[in-house]
Amino acid sequence: MVMKCMYPDEGTYPFVLNSCSRLSDVVKLGFDSYDLVGNALVEMYRRCGDSGKLQEPVEGEAINDLAYWNTSIFEAYQNGNAQESFRVFKRMRMQRLEPDSVTVINLLRSSVVLNSLKAGKFIHCSVVVGYLCENLSVNTALLSMYSKLSSLEDARLFFKKMPERDCVVWNIMISAYSQNSYPKETLELLIQMRRRGVRADLFTAIPAISSIAELKCLEWGKQMHAHVIRNGLDYQVSVHNSLIDMYCKSNQLEAAQKVFDLRSHGSLSLFTKMKLDGFKVDLKYLHGYSVKSSLNSTSSMNSALLISYAKCGCIDMARNLFDEKELDGKDVITWNSMISAYSKHGEWPECFVLYNKMKQSGLKPDRVTFLGLLTACVNSGLVRKGEAEELIKTMPFKPDAQVWGPLLSACKMHSETGLAVFVAEKLISMEPKNAGNYILLSNIYAAAGKDSGLKKTPGCSWLEINGQVHEFCVAD
Prior knowledge:
This protein is an all-alpha fold. The chain has 25 helices and two strands. Helix 3 packs parallel to helix 4. One of its GO terms (molecular function) is RNA binding.
């Protein structure tokens, strides 16, 4: 009816709903035992979002159709009930049915959701004893499972034994090395990939460029940049940003600027034209568009929106956006963005409340987290109470000049001369040629009145007049 462009009205649906009410007849008459009818029932319940009813039409019956079980396993996985996937698989095995590639792939995905390496290895064993050992899709799913569960050694050994490797397989292994901070191994794998004649794509380029940036291997970076341009990948924002990061870390700021200009010129021109034509940038409109386009599922997008609201003075909107995500769904970037937002708005106690909640959630604070907290300490005057010094001592990394510098400025602001001497010694040992540190410490001493009795050597100059040299000093 719909295919004939004839659309239902209020008189059509009562008949359709009345037909649905007779579904019990299908079971009573035994038609649900037919594969075609049974699978149609499963699909109907799946589309209605009532996966709990999937077993009801066929309760107590032996189901020998593998498609039914695969649909049930997939439905449980898709609805976020990964444990149910394995319960369905257990019932399927009781029917003495062997899993196929679809079964295995969905169960491996469920293992990742459960964060269970044990479950993943159990499914791997069923693959080994079965006939799926040489199935590329299954092997790819196994490799992906090991890499996502951070079992890098298992992933490496399995990768070496794989009889067939396409671009997707190489990408999984390259990404695994890159995400686990093995840049050298990532580059070696990229070299092997090229020698095997496998063409790198977008998902190869991003982790490869990131690893090249860590190694500061500029020659390889230029080769990767050329490959990106030849294959038309430079229009991708993620690749573009990775190239800028790579050139910056290699101290090639001019090259980074050129890459930035190539991408941003069109955007800046369009933005300028919008302003000239009287169009105002509406943050709420952009937020709505990101939700409508499903772009708000990434932490980078949410963090950008959060910071934008904070910079516009809408700290409450920023907090609402932060609270929208469940506690387990927030990553370090999201927490850092909210801490930074509170710090800039002068709500310093909230920074430390969030910091404690972040630790309770199981996430490890990084350098950006501590710099945000240190900024809060500096601006709030907590230096006097010793919180800033204590915070530096608890950092999981060795403090550098970026950490000690703001603390020295805070000491000057709050007249903490004793702490200033300690901090200045740290800074001077790290940056002995930075004159700014000496000047700042000198100003702290002067403000504390510790320059009494000191006399600055006056500047002198000499001038020759009529063959005689005359000396002039300051204040003469």
